[in-house]
Amino acid sequence: MVAEISLITYLLPIFSFLLVFIVLYAILQKTHVLEENIGISIFISLILASFFIVETQLVDFVSFTASWFTVLIIVVFLLFLMLAFFPGEKPLEFLTKGNWFSFVALGLLIVFFIISATHVFNWTLNGAMLRAWAQTEWFGFILLAIIATVVSIVLAKTSK
Questions:
Q1: Does any domain span residue 91?
Q2: Is the pLDDT assigned to residue 35 strictly greater than 70?
Q3: What would the pLDDT profile of 123-141 be if each residue is shown by its tens digit?
Q4: Same domain, yes or no, for 12 and 50?
Q5: Of the four listed, 79, 107, 117, 128, which is most buried by Cβ atoms within 10 Å?
Q6: What is the DSSP letter of 30?
Q7: Is residue 157 part of a domain?
Q8: What global pTM score does this model have?
Q9: Could you tell me if residue 29 is inside a domain?
Q10: Are residues 1 and 41 in the same domain?
């Protein structure tokens, strides 16, 4: 007997929406960018997560990234499990705060997301593609989002 899981492909946009909404909301609440204003945090998270329902490439991006991120987490867990059996009192001492490991892990995560984005969106860096992309609506949206982020950070710092 074979399990039929093709229904998951129909629910993937909903799962992508929920994942993006929860992650964005958690980041907004944890960083206190909006000073714990729950209503605005929910609104911003809903608006940004709704793009992951509308655009099919974004759903593919979340699907690809989430599956490989899960593989990465399992590999890291097994690596830590292996390190736990090393002799000594503190075999995982390199994970302490302020150590180089945190920066390397963050750099690897950024590289991981860039590689997964290039895989899903078939990016190749050439001038014609960049010019064509700069003339789309998405470029304006991303530019506006970056400007809004910078302005909100500056306003949040000056209001303290």
A1: no
A2: yes
A3: 665 567 667 777 887 777 8
A4: yes
A5: 117
A6: H
A7: yes
A8: 0.47
A9: yes
A10: yes
Q: 15 lies in which domain range?
A: 1-54
Two tokens, residue 82: 């292996």
Whether 48 contacts 20, CB under 8 Å: yes
Give CA–CA dist 111/53, Å, rounded.
Answer: 25
Give the phi and the psi of residue 17 in degrees, each rounded to 5. Answer: -60, -50
Q: Tell me if 110 is assigned to some domain.
A: yes
First to last CA, the chain: 62
Q: 63 and 117: one domain? A: yes
- Structure-token match 């729950």, residue found: 38
Q: What is the DSSP string of 120-131?
A: HHT----HHHHH
The 10s digit of each residue's pLDDT in 46-89 is 988 888 777 778 878 877 788 778 877 887 787 777 666 666 56
Per-residue exposure over 137-154, b if at least 16 CB sit within 10 Å of its own CB, e if not: eeeeeeeeeeeeeeeeee
